[in-house]
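We modelled the chain as a single entity of 312 amino acids. Its sequence is:
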Amino acid sequence: MRKALPGLLLVLACAAPAQAEPPSEVFPGIASALVDHYDFEHPLASDPKKEDDQGRADSRTPISLVNGGAAMRTADGAFPGSKTSLQLKQVQPNKKSNDDWKAGLYSTSGVASMKAFSKARGISIMTWVKVTGEAPARNSNSSGTGDFYGAIGFAGILSGDSDGHAARALLEAENHDGGMKLIALGRRIDGGDKQFWVSKADLRTLLPQGKWVFLAGTFDFDNGTVGLYLDGKPVDGAYAVKGDPWKVIGAPEPDVTSAANPRGIKIGGSHPANNKETNACNCRLDGLMFLDRALTADEVRGQYDWVTKGRR
């Protein structure tokens, strides 16, 4: 047996300390309500043209980056710690085609992983948006080159009977009372009436070109209320529909959405099946979240402060 030589130093290799997990970009107060979350920094391992869902393990819903694929991930994070956002745009503004850069998924049978939004008492949508081009976009379905869409689609959950346009919950801009306004739109019953909160200020005032803003829409289907927020603060505005469009007055209680899984998600316009172009968005999105209850104003503010003032 060989003896150790006098004076020989034995060096023990120590394992490097485990790398600490980066702090979550999700405010802890809303984490339990988060169903789907897209940060556009997680390509699906089997297909980089799809984005993986960082939400609940039992509700993972990858989405397609339509027409632009992996090139749609852009090195422009909306908030500290974010590296990449999603570029959405028109490719041929004056030509009828199906090549707009948008995202989402669509299934005529409904998306089973999105069951949390079936028979839901509330839904919330939150995302960062930066306008990077014409807003609204040119209407590629019109023969007139100077015609523009009457709306801009940011992000929404489709209804259970949607053809790729009708939404159960949606953040958008729309022509209203002579101007393009910011809107949070909800539909409780598939095929039923919408209710939406419309901003008082013009879209260009609220979403100036080239500036990241944090948008949130909350939809309390049980109480019949809609909330719209910008950078964590309520947006001054009013309801567009009088009365009880969601049919929440009277029995039975509670009031919930239709008992049908959503047909998918639309991001940057409509028709994620890529069979039509409508309401394109020349913009970037980051930190997109879908939650299965209506957040409070304090919770919306909490998420905004969490990512802008330093996560702990």
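As a brief sanity check on the tokenised model: The two ends are 55 Å apart (CA to CA). The chain has two helices and 18 strands.
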